[in-house]
Amino acid sequence: MKIALVIGNRPHFIKAAPFLKAMTAYPEMKPFIIHSGQHYDHSMSGAFLEGFNFPPVAENLEVGSGSIGEQTGKILTRLDPVYRRLKPDCVVSMGDTNTTLAASLAAYQLHLPNAHIEAGMRENIWRPEEINKKMADHCADFLFAPIPRAVENLKFEGIEENRIFHTGDITLDTFTANQSAAQSNFKSVCNRFPEIPVEYDLLTLHRAETVDDKDIFMDILQALLGWPRPLVFPVHPRTSKRIDEFGFRREVESSNNIICLPPLGYLDFVSLVVNARQVATDSSGVLKEAFYASKKCIVLDESTEYREIFSLEAAFMAGRTSSSIQQTLNHTESFAFPAITDNPFGTGHAAEEMVKIIRAGL
Ligand code: UD1
Ligand code: UDP
Question: pTM for the full model?
Protein backbone atom coordinates (compact mmCIF):
# COMPACT_ATOMS: atom_id res chain seq x y z
CA MET A 1 0.00 0.00 0.00
CA LYS A 2 1.92 3.02 -1.31
CA ILE A 3 0.98 6.27 0.44
CA ALA A 4 2.22 9.52 -1.13
CA LEU A 5 2.41 12.51 1.20
CA VAL A 6 2.49 15.66 -0.88
CA ILE A 7 3.94 18.44 1.23
CA GLY A 8 5.82 21.65 0.58
CA ASN A 9 5.05 24.33 3.17
CA ARG A 10 6.37 24.73 6.70
CA PRO A 11 3.07 23.79 8.38
CA HIS A 12 2.84 20.65 6.20
CA PHE A 13 6.06 19.23 7.61
CA ILE A 14 4.69 19.78 11.12
CA LYS A 15 1.40 18.03 10.26
CA ALA A 16 3.08 15.19 8.35
CA ALA A 17 5.25 14.17 11.32
CA PRO A 18 2.56 12.39 13.40
CA PHE A 19 1.01 10.94 10.25
CA LEU A 20 4.29 9.31 9.21
CA LYS A 21 4.78 8.05 12.75
CA ALA A 22 1.28 6.54 12.87
CA MET A 23 1.97 4.59 9.67
CA THR A 24 4.94 2.79 11.27
CA ALA A 25 2.39 0.59 13.11
CA TYR A 26 1.48 -0.99 9.74
CA PRO A 27 4.46 -2.43 7.83
CA GLU A 28 2.31 -2.93 4.74
CA MET A 29 1.87 0.85 4.47
CA LYS A 30 4.79 2.27 2.49
CA PRO A 31 4.84 6.05 2.80
CA PHE A 32 6.89 8.28 0.55
CA ILE A 33 7.26 12.04 0.38
CA ILE A 34 6.69 14.23 -2.64
CA HIS A 35 7.97 17.75 -1.84
CA SER A 36 6.53 20.50 -4.01
CA GLY A 37 9.44 22.84 -3.27
CA GLN A 38 7.03 25.73 -2.46
CA HIS A 39 9.14 26.35 0.64
CA TYR A 40 12.80 25.72 0.02
CA ASP A 41 14.99 27.71 2.47
CA HIS A 42 16.61 25.35 4.94
CA SER A 43 14.88 27.20 7.79
CA MET A 44 11.45 26.66 6.14
CA SER A 45 11.92 23.10 4.91
CA GLY A 46 15.14 21.10 5.47
CA ALA A 47 15.26 22.00 9.17
CA PHE A 48 11.86 20.29 9.63
CA LEU A 49 12.65 17.25 7.49
CA GLU A 50 15.78 16.75 9.61
CA GLY A 51 14.18 17.74 12.92
CA PHE A 52 11.36 15.23 12.52
CA ASN A 53 13.65 12.54 11.06
CA PHE A 54 11.66 12.19 7.86
CA PRO A 55 12.67 9.53 5.33
CA PRO A 56 14.51 10.94 2.29
CA VAL A 57 12.24 12.89 -0.07
CA ALA A 58 11.29 10.62 -2.99
CA GLU A 59 10.62 13.49 -5.42
CA ASN A 60 11.23 17.21 -5.13
CA LEU A 61 9.24 19.18 -7.70
CA GLU A 62 11.33 22.31 -6.99
CA VAL A 63 8.62 24.80 -7.95
CA GLY A 64 10.07 27.59 -5.82
CA SER A 65 8.39 30.98 -5.48
CA GLY A 66 6.09 32.71 -7.95
CA SER A 67 2.57 33.99 -8.38
CA ILE A 68 -0.25 31.78 -7.11
CA GLY A 69 -1.18 30.71 -10.64
CA GLU A 70 2.40 29.99 -11.63
CA GLN A 71 3.12 28.01 -8.48
CA THR A 72 -0.12 25.99 -8.56
CA GLY A 73 0.19 25.36 -12.28
CA LYS A 74 3.79 24.20 -12.00
CA ILE A 75 3.00 21.81 -9.16
CA LEU A 76 0.07 20.35 -11.14
CA THR A 77 2.16 19.94 -14.28
CA ARG A 78 5.05 18.34 -12.44
CA LEU A 79 2.94 16.09 -10.23
CA ASP A 80 0.99 14.42 -12.99
CA PRO A 81 3.91 12.39 -14.43
CA VAL A 82 5.20 11.65 -10.92
CA TYR A 83 1.84 10.16 -9.89
CA ARG A 84 1.73 8.14 -13.14
CA ARG A 85 5.22 6.79 -12.54
CA LEU A 86 5.03 6.11 -8.78
CA LYS A 87 1.39 4.93 -8.82
CA PRO A 88 0.47 5.68 -5.19
CA ASP A 89 -2.50 3.78 -3.75
CA CYS A 90 -3.43 6.92 -1.87
CA VAL A 91 -2.34 10.56 -1.96
CA VAL A 92 -2.43 12.59 1.25
CA SER A 93 -2.52 16.40 1.28
CA MET A 94 -3.06 18.80 4.16
CA GLY A 95 -4.11 22.34 4.91
CA ASP A 96 -4.91 25.02 2.36
CA THR A 97 -1.88 26.06 0.35
CA ASN A 98 -1.15 26.00 -3.38
CA THR A 99 0.62 22.69 -2.83
CA THR A 100 -2.54 21.27 -1.21
CA LEU A 101 -4.78 22.25 -4.10
CA ALA A 102 -2.44 20.93 -6.79
CA ALA A 103 -1.81 17.67 -4.91
CA SER A 104 -5.48 16.83 -4.56
CA LEU A 105 -6.60 18.05 -7.99
CA ALA A 106 -3.89 16.06 -9.77
CA ALA A 107 -4.86 12.97 -7.75
CA TYR A 108 -8.55 13.44 -8.54
CA GLN A 109 -7.90 13.77 -12.27
CA LEU A 110 -6.00 10.46 -12.25
CA HIS A 111 -8.64 8.66 -10.17
CA LEU A 112 -6.20 8.20 -7.31
CA PRO A 113 -7.82 7.81 -3.90
CA ASN A 114 -6.88 10.83 -1.85
CA ALA A 115 -7.15 12.13 1.66
CA HIS A 116 -7.32 15.73 2.86
CA ILE A 117 -6.17 16.53 6.38
CA GLU A 118 -7.83 19.60 7.99
CA ALA A 119 -10.92 19.24 5.83
CA GLY A 120 -14.00 21.41 6.21
CA MET A 121 -12.46 24.55 7.69
CA ARG A 122 -14.07 27.63 6.17
CA GLU A 123 -13.90 31.37 6.62
CA ASN A 124 -16.32 32.18 3.79
CA ILE A 125 -14.30 35.19 2.68
CA TRP A 126 -12.06 35.77 -0.34
CA ARG A 127 -8.66 34.30 0.30
CA PRO A 128 -6.50 32.08 -1.91
CA GLU A 129 -6.44 29.57 0.93
CA GLU A 130 -10.26 29.47 1.07
CA ILE A 131 -10.63 28.12 -2.47
CA ASN A 132 -7.56 25.90 -2.12
CA LYS A 133 -9.03 23.99 0.80
CA LYS A 134 -12.56 23.93 -0.61
CA MET A 135 -11.38 22.38 -3.85
CA ALA A 136 -9.10 19.95 -2.03
CA ASP A 137 -12.11 18.81 0.00
CA HIS A 138 -14.27 18.29 -3.05
CA CYS A 139 -11.53 16.22 -4.70
CA ALA A 140 -10.94 14.00 -1.65
CA ASP A 141 -12.23 10.53 -0.79
CA PHE A 142 -11.18 10.71 2.86
CA LEU A 143 -11.94 14.08 4.47
CA PHE A 144 -10.41 14.38 7.92
CA ALA A 145 -12.24 17.10 9.83
CA PRO A 146 -10.43 18.54 12.86
CA ILE A 147 -13.49 19.84 14.71
CA PRO A 148 -17.25 19.10 14.66
CA ARG A 149 -18.08 22.37 12.86
CA ALA A 150 -15.87 21.30 9.96
CA VAL A 151 -18.05 18.19 9.56
CA GLU A 152 -21.13 20.40 9.41
CA ASN A 153 -19.50 22.67 6.80
CA LEU A 154 -18.75 19.68 4.58
CA LYS A 155 -22.26 18.26 4.87
CA PHE A 156 -23.65 21.71 4.03
CA GLU A 157 -21.62 21.65 0.81
CA GLY A 158 -23.22 18.35 -0.16
CA ILE A 159 -20.26 16.06 0.48
CA GLU A 160 -21.41 12.50 1.18
CA GLU A 161 -21.23 11.60 4.87
CA ASN A 162 -19.30 8.38 4.17
CA ARG A 163 -16.34 10.49 2.97
CA ILE A 164 -16.24 12.65 6.12
CA PHE A 165 -14.37 11.59 9.28
CA HIS A 166 -14.13 13.63 12.46
CA THR A 167 -10.66 12.77 13.72
CA GLY A 168 -9.48 15.77 15.77
CA ASP A 169 -6.72 18.15 14.78
CA ILE A 170 -3.36 16.72 13.72
CA THR A 171 -1.43 19.78 14.94
CA LEU A 172 -2.47 18.79 18.47
CA ASP A 173 -0.75 15.42 17.90
CA THR A 174 2.50 17.18 16.98
CA PHE A 175 2.21 19.64 19.83
CA THR A 176 1.42 16.98 22.44
CA ALA A 177 4.26 14.73 21.29
CA ASN A 178 6.81 17.58 21.43
CA GLN A 179 5.65 19.84 24.27
CA SER A 180 7.94 18.49 26.95
CA ALA A 181 10.99 18.34 24.62
CA ALA A 182 10.22 21.93 23.62
CA GLN A 183 10.08 23.00 27.26
CA SER A 184 13.48 21.38 27.94
CA ASN A 185 14.83 23.10 24.82
CA PHE A 186 14.06 26.63 26.05
CA LYS A 187 17.42 27.14 27.73
CA SER A 188 19.24 26.20 24.54
CA VAL A 189 17.14 28.70 22.52
CA CYS A 190 17.94 31.45 25.04
CA ASN A 191 21.64 30.59 24.84
CA ARG A 192 21.59 30.82 21.06
CA PHE A 193 19.53 34.04 21.12
CA PRO A 194 20.65 35.92 24.25
CA GLU A 195 18.53 38.89 23.15
CA ILE A 196 15.38 36.99 24.27
CA PRO A 197 14.25 38.70 27.51
CA VAL A 198 12.80 36.95 30.56
CA GLU A 199 9.33 38.30 29.93
CA TYR A 200 8.12 38.65 26.36
CA ASP A 201 5.17 38.21 24.00
CA LEU A 202 5.72 36.08 20.90
CA LEU A 203 4.88 37.55 17.49
CA THR A 204 4.49 36.03 14.02
CA LEU A 205 3.18 37.69 10.86
CA HIS A 206 3.18 36.22 7.40
CA ARG A 207 -0.15 36.39 5.63
CA ALA A 208 -0.20 38.12 2.28
CA GLU A 209 -3.18 40.21 3.49
CA THR A 210 -1.13 41.42 6.46
CA VAL A 211 2.28 42.15 5.01
CA ASP A 212 1.92 42.64 1.25
CA ASP A 213 0.17 46.03 1.47
CA LYS A 214 2.55 48.76 2.62
CA ASP A 215 -0.10 50.88 4.37
CA ILE A 216 -1.63 47.94 6.23
CA PHE A 217 1.76 46.63 7.29
CA MET A 218 2.87 50.13 8.40
CA ASP A 219 -0.27 50.56 10.49
CA ILE A 220 0.24 47.18 12.17
CA LEU A 221 3.86 48.06 12.77
CA GLN A 222 2.84 51.24 14.62
CA ALA A 223 0.84 49.10 17.06
CA LEU A 224 3.76 46.70 17.46
CA LEU A 225 6.20 49.55 18.16
CA GLY A 226 3.93 50.69 21.00
CA TRP A 227 3.48 47.19 22.47
CA PRO A 228 3.74 47.17 26.28
CA ARG A 229 6.30 44.31 26.39
CA PRO A 230 9.19 43.02 24.28
CA LEU A 231 7.98 41.13 21.22
CA VAL A 232 10.08 38.17 20.12
CA PHE A 233 9.53 37.92 16.37
CA PRO A 234 10.79 34.98 14.27
CA VAL A 235 10.38 36.51 10.81
CA HIS A 236 8.84 34.55 7.90
CA PRO A 237 10.75 35.09 4.59
CA ARG A 238 7.74 36.78 2.94
CA THR A 239 7.64 39.29 5.80
CA SER A 240 11.39 39.81 5.77
CA LYS A 241 11.23 40.57 2.06
CA ARG A 242 8.44 43.14 2.60
CA ILE A 243 10.28 44.78 5.51
CA ASP A 244 13.17 45.48 3.12
CA GLU A 245 11.00 46.40 0.15
CA PHE A 246 8.89 48.89 2.16
CA GLY A 247 11.94 50.39 3.90
CA PHE A 248 10.88 49.29 7.40
CA ARG A 249 14.12 47.50 8.31
CA ARG A 250 15.77 50.30 10.25
CA GLU A 251 12.59 51.16 12.19
CA VAL A 252 12.07 47.51 13.18
CA GLU A 253 15.66 46.78 14.10
CA SER A 254 16.27 50.01 16.01
CA SER A 255 13.04 49.66 17.99
CA ASN A 256 13.32 49.10 21.72
CA ASN A 257 10.84 46.28 21.85
CA ILE A 258 10.87 44.18 18.64
CA ILE A 259 13.42 41.38 18.72
CA CYS A 260 13.75 39.84 15.26
CA LEU A 261 14.88 36.23 14.94
CA PRO A 262 15.24 34.03 11.87
CA PRO A 263 12.51 31.45 11.19
CA LEU A 264 12.97 28.79 13.87
CA GLY A 265 12.73 25.01 13.97
CA TYR A 266 9.61 23.51 15.54
CA LEU A 267 11.04 22.69 18.98
CA ASP A 268 12.66 26.12 19.21
CA PHE A 269 9.46 27.85 18.20
CA VAL A 270 7.19 25.85 20.51
CA SER A 271 9.59 26.48 23.38
CA LEU A 272 9.01 30.21 22.79
CA VAL A 273 5.23 29.66 22.71
CA VAL A 274 5.14 27.80 26.02
CA ASN A 275 7.31 30.39 27.76
CA ALA A 276 5.65 33.51 26.32
CA ARG A 277 3.33 35.73 28.33
CA GLN A 278 0.97 35.82 25.35
CA VAL A 279 1.07 35.39 21.58
CA ALA A 280 0.26 37.83 18.75
CA THR A 281 -0.11 36.32 15.29
CA ASP A 282 -1.93 36.13 11.95
CA SER A 283 -1.18 32.40 11.61
CA SER A 284 -3.88 29.78 12.17
CA GLY A 285 -1.27 27.21 13.15
CA VAL A 286 0.29 29.49 15.74
CA LEU A 287 -3.16 30.46 17.07
CA LYS A 288 -3.91 26.78 17.73
CA GLU A 289 -0.52 26.23 19.38
CA ALA A 290 -1.08 29.22 21.67
CA PHE A 291 -4.37 27.61 22.65
CA TYR A 292 -2.76 24.21 23.27
CA ALA A 293 -0.13 25.92 25.43
CA SER A 294 -2.83 27.86 27.37
CA LYS A 295 -1.53 31.21 26.14
CA LYS A 296 -3.80 34.10 25.36
CA CYS A 297 -3.61 35.05 21.67
CA ILE A 298 -4.11 38.42 19.99
CA VAL A 299 -4.94 37.74 16.35
CA LEU A 300 -3.74 40.39 13.91
CA ASP A 301 -6.39 39.64 11.33
CA GLU A 302 -10.05 40.28 10.54
CA SER A 303 -11.28 36.72 10.18
CA THR A 304 -10.56 33.25 11.51
CA GLU A 305 -11.13 29.58 10.76
CA TYR A 306 -11.13 28.73 14.45
CA ARG A 307 -13.87 30.77 16.07
CA GLU A 308 -14.19 28.13 18.83
CA ILE A 309 -11.02 29.57 20.41
CA PHE A 310 -12.52 33.08 20.34
CA SER A 311 -15.83 31.89 21.81
CA LEU A 312 -13.85 30.52 24.76
CA GLU A 313 -12.22 33.97 25.17
CA ALA A 314 -8.78 32.39 24.77
CA ALA A 315 -8.05 34.54 21.71
CA PHE A 316 -9.13 37.97 20.54
CA MET A 317 -9.54 39.35 17.05
CA ALA A 318 -7.57 42.58 16.90
CA GLY A 319 -7.99 43.49 13.24
CA ARG A 320 -5.24 45.05 11.16
CA THR A 321 -5.23 48.69 12.16
CA SER A 322 -3.06 50.33 14.74
CA SER A 323 -6.07 51.61 16.71
CA SER A 324 -8.01 48.31 16.67
CA ILE A 325 -4.91 46.40 17.77
CA GLN A 326 -4.17 48.87 20.58
CA GLN A 327 -7.80 48.78 21.74
CA THR A 328 -7.85 44.98 21.80
CA LEU A 329 -4.58 44.90 23.65
CA ASN A 330 -5.78 47.38 26.29
CA HIS A 331 -9.09 45.61 26.66
CA THR A 332 -7.58 42.13 27.11
CA GLU A 333 -4.36 42.97 28.99
CA SER A 334 -5.75 41.90 32.36
CA PHE A 335 -7.63 38.83 31.04
CA ALA A 336 -6.36 35.45 32.24
CA PHE A 337 -6.40 32.39 29.98
CA PRO A 338 -9.77 30.68 30.66
CA ALA A 339 -10.20 27.22 32.18
CA ILE A 340 -10.81 24.78 29.29
CA THR A 341 -12.79 21.68 30.19
CA ASP A 342 -13.32 20.30 26.71
CA ASN A 343 -10.69 20.71 23.97
CA PRO A 344 -12.56 21.14 20.65
CA PHE A 345 -9.46 19.92 18.79
CA GLY A 346 -9.57 16.39 20.24
CA THR A 347 -7.10 14.34 22.20
CA GLY A 348 -3.86 14.45 20.18
CA HIS A 349 -4.40 11.08 18.48
CA ALA A 350 -5.85 12.25 15.18
CA ALA A 351 -3.11 10.78 12.98
CA GLU A 352 -3.60 7.23 14.32
CA GLU A 353 -7.30 7.52 13.54
CA MET A 354 -6.62 8.80 9.99
CA VAL A 355 -4.17 6.04 9.20
CA LYS A 356 -6.62 3.37 10.42
CA ILE A 357 -9.38 4.86 8.26
CA ILE A 358 -7.22 4.95 5.12
CA ARG A 359 -5.96 1.40 5.70
CA ALA A 360 -9.48 0.08 6.15
CA GLY A 361 -10.87 2.09 3.25
CA LEU A 362 -8.40 1.31 0.46
C1 UD1 B 1 2.26 29.94 2.03
C2 UD1 B 1 0.76 29.66 1.91
C3 UD1 B 1 0.08 30.13 3.18
C4 UD1 B 1 0.70 29.47 4.41
C5 UD1 B 1 2.19 29.70 4.41
C6 UD1 B 1 2.84 28.94 5.55
C7 UD1 B 1 -0.27 29.78 -0.34
C8 UD1 B 1 -1.12 30.63 -1.23
N9 UD1 B 1 0.18 30.39 0.78
O10 UD1 B 1 2.43 31.34 2.17
O11 UD1 B 1 -1.30 29.76 3.14
O12 UD1 B 1 0.11 30.01 5.57
O13 UD1 B 1 2.77 29.24 3.17
O14 UD1 B 1 4.08 29.48 5.87
O15 UD1 B 1 0.01 28.65 -0.65
N16 UD1 B 1 10.13 32.60 0.46
C17 UD1 B 1 11.47 32.42 0.68
N18 UD1 B 1 11.90 31.18 1.01
C19 UD1 B 1 11.09 30.11 1.12
C20 UD1 B 1 9.71 30.30 0.89
C21 UD1 B 1 9.25 31.56 0.57
O22 UD1 B 1 12.25 33.37 0.59
O23 UD1 B 1 11.57 29.00 1.44
C24 UD1 B 1 9.64 33.97 0.16
C25 UD1 B 1 9.62 34.27 -1.34
O26 UD1 B 1 9.95 35.58 -1.50
C27 UD1 B 1 8.14 34.06 -1.69
C28 UD1 B 1 7.44 34.49 -0.41
O29 UD1 B 1 8.30 34.09 0.64
O30 UD1 B 1 7.75 34.82 -2.81
C31 UD1 B 1 6.08 33.85 -0.22
O32 UD1 B 1 6.18 32.42 -0.29
P33 UD1 B 1 4.90 31.55 -0.77
O34 UD1 B 1 5.23 30.12 -0.67
O35 UD1 B 1 4.41 32.05 -2.08
O36 UD1 B 1 3.79 31.95 0.26
P37 UD1 B 1 3.82 32.00 1.85
O38 UD1 B 1 3.70 33.42 2.27
O39 UD1 B 1 4.97 31.22 2.37
N1 UDP C 1 6.67 27.74 13.20
C2 UDP C 1 7.97 27.30 13.31
N3 UDP C 1 8.97 28.25 13.31
C4 UDP C 1 8.72 29.58 13.24
C5 UDP C 1 7.38 30.01 13.12
C6 UDP C 1 6.37 29.07 13.10
O7 UDP C 1 8.23 26.09 13.40
O8 UDP C 1 9.66 30.37 13.26
C9 UDP C 1 5.61 26.72 13.14
C10 UDP C 1 4.55 26.86 14.20
O11 UDP C 1 4.89 26.08 15.32
C12 UDP C 1 3.30 26.34 13.52
C13 UDP C 1 3.57 26.54 12.04
O14 UDP C 1 4.94 26.88 11.92
O15 UDP C 1 3.13 24.96 13.73
C16 UDP C 1 2.72 27.62 11.47
O17 UDP C 1 3.11 27.84 10.15
P18 UDP C 1 2.86 29.21 9.40
O19 UDP C 1 2.64 30.30 10.38
O20 UDP C 1 3.99 29.35 8.44
O21 UDP C 1 1.57 28.91 8.54
P22 UDP C 1 0.00 28.71 8.86
O23 UDP C 1 -0.15 27.82 10.03
O24 UDP C 1 -0.59 30.06 9.07
O25 UDP C 1 -0.48 28.12 7.60
Answer: 0.98
